[in-house]
Specification:
197 residues; Rossmann fold; seven-stranded mixed sheet; 9 strands
């Protein structure tokens, strides 16, 4: 197993976006689709109380074995009986496209306390030929970055391609989370950041 600090892939590459948007004061954080628990553990290490939730039994077992000081739950976050407005932050990396985006964003919004922050890194479907220039740039950047990194393939289930395009996800975010910031990132990811009024 690769040491956590040495792991790299396109999801891990954007963990810094999550860290930069989290509230600075310690709070309760929900990691939706936590997989093997790497992000949950990193957020816990920054002083937050973290609950990681994922439907995949193997991923949760691995998370629990690697990061025993973090709470992990094997369940569907859409139906798990968390209290309304019970989290200071909700984060999610590369999990939204496994769910109905509209339903999942509504549930995340419901779980946030007023003033709470949602930070999401997602995957979307590319559009051709519209995205060809961006794809060429991403491919070159990826090749350059990967030269100095050891790629880590997580064991969590994958779903590809996503149903929604980047443009569709931008529209969904605008409607579900008024005032949210949507940004498309170079290495095949987007981010949504929203503070609950």
């Amino acid at each position: 197993m690769i040491e956590v600090s040495l792991r790299w892939n396109h999801n891990l590459h954007y963990h810094g976006v999550v860290f930069g948007e989290l509230p600075r004061e310690s709070g309760r954080v929900l990691d939706v689709g936590c997989g093997e628990g790497v992000l949950s553990a990193q957020i816990h290490g920054r002083g937050h109380r973290v609950t990681g939730i994922d439907r995949d039994e193997a991923s949760i077992r691995l998370a629990q074995s690697q990061f025993a000081d973090v709470e992990f739950i094997r369940a569907d976050f859409l139906t798990y009986p968390f209290g309304t407005e019970s989290f200071d932050a909700v984060v999610s990396v590369a999990a939204l496209h496994h769910m109905n985006s509209v339903t999942a964003l509504a549930r995340m919004r419901e779980l946030l306390r007023p003033g709470g922050r949602l930070v999401l890194i997602g995957c979307a479907r590319r559009e051709f030929p519209r995205d060809l220039p961006r794809e060429a740039l991403a491919f070159a950047a990826n090749k350059w970055i990967a030269r100095s990194r050891t790629y880590w393939e997580h064991s969590a289930p994958t779903r590809w391609p996503p149903d929604a395009t980047y443009r569709e996800m931008r529209r969904i975010a605008r409607h579900a989370l008024p005032g949210s910031r949507f940004r498309r990132h170079l290495l095949w990811r987007y981010s949504i950041v929203w503070t609950k009024p």
